[in-house]
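Record type: monomer structure entry
Structure origin: computed from sequence
Chain ID: A
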Amino acid sequence: MDEADELFSIAKVSARIGLAPDTLRYFERQGIVPSPRRDNAGRRQYTTADVELIRMLVHLRETGMPLADIAQFTGADDKVTDPAGLRLELLTAHRRRVQDRREELDRALEVISRKIADYSDRITSSLELLDRPDCTIAFSVQGEGPLLFLVGAPAGRAGFAALAHELAGRFRVVTHDPRGIGASRAVPGMAAPTPEVLAEDLAALVDRFTGGPALFVGTSGGAVTLLELAKQHPYLVDRAVLHEPPLVSLLNDADLTDRAAAAFTVAETDPQWAVQEFFDFSGAGHHTGPDQTPPTHMALPELPAEELDKNRYFLGRMAGPTVFYVPDIEATRRISVALCAGALSHHQMARRATQALAGQLGLPLIDMPGNHVGASAEPAEFARAVVPLLAR
C-alpha cells in the first residue's frame, strides 16, 4: 500500500501529532476538522492527508488563529466555494498577525533581557564616577584583557550589561551612561549631548584608563560618537566596530529628514507622538530580511511616565544632533574601522545609513545577528560575531 493510501486509527494519529484522542473528537464535533471516513465497525480511519491537515491545525491554533478561521481553512466549513483562494487569504492575514505578535514579544524580551542584565551588572560590577566640568559620568568595569569600550547613545550600562558579560572573558570591558542617561543624570547648566560633547566625555573616560589606543564597539548613536572621537582623538582608537550609526544626513531623503526634525521638535511637549513617529520612520523595532520592508505604521501602547521623561531627553536633545551629524570621511579613514548592521535590519533607516557610509569609505557592510538592537537583544550571538571584527 502506498503511503498516500495508508489509513490510521485515532490512536495512531494521536501518537503522531501529540493530541489526545478526546481532543481530536472535540475538533470534529465542533466542526473544526472534517469528519474522517469510518470502517464497517464505525471506527475512524484517517488518511495521510487528514493527518497533515490536523498537523497544520495544531500550528494554526498554537499561533492564535481563531477557530472559525481554522474551520474555513481545514474545509470543515462546507460553504466555501474557493478553498485554495480562501486558504491563501487566511494564511496571509494570519502570517501578519504572527509577525506582529513576534515583534511585540521581541520588544518585551529585549526589555526583560536588559533588566536581567542590569541587575546582574549591579551585582558583578561596581559603579564608578568620572567628574566632568559640567556633569558626572557613571561607568562600570568588568573582565580582564585588552581594554574594550562599549559605547551607546542613548544606550548606557544597562543596555550593554549582557553584552559586557559575554565579552568579559576576553576583554576588560568598560560601559558608561552617557550624560543625561541612567546614573549620569542631567544637571542644570549641562552642555547638550551632541556627538562632539559625547566624544569628549568618552575621551576623558579613556584617559582615565590609558593614554594610548583602545578597542571600541559603538551601536546606534554610540557609533556616531565614535565617528567624532576618530575626528578629535584618532590616537585613542586602536580599532572601532560601528554598528548601525543612524545618519539621516547621508541618505538624501527629504521626507525622512522632515519627519525626523518634526518628531525631535515636539518631543518635549508630546513625547508619545514623537516616539511613535520615530518608531515608524526608523523601522528599528522590526525584523526585516532582504526581501522584507518594515510596516509604515504599528501603533505603540501608551508609554509610562518614566519612559516619556526619558524620551523627552533622548528625542528632544540627543537624537537630533546624532542623526543629522555629518561624519568626516577623511578622519574616519585614518582609523581602523569595521562597519556592520543587523541581518534583520534591511530597508530600515540605520542600516541604509550604514550602507551609505560604507560606500563612502569603500568598506564592506558586515551582517550581525538581529536587528538594530541586536547587541542587547541577542548578546551571546552578537558577542561571538563582534570578537573577530575587533582584530585588525
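Annotation 1: The first strand starts at residue 7 and ends at 8.
Annotation 2: The two ends are 63 Å apart (CA to CA).
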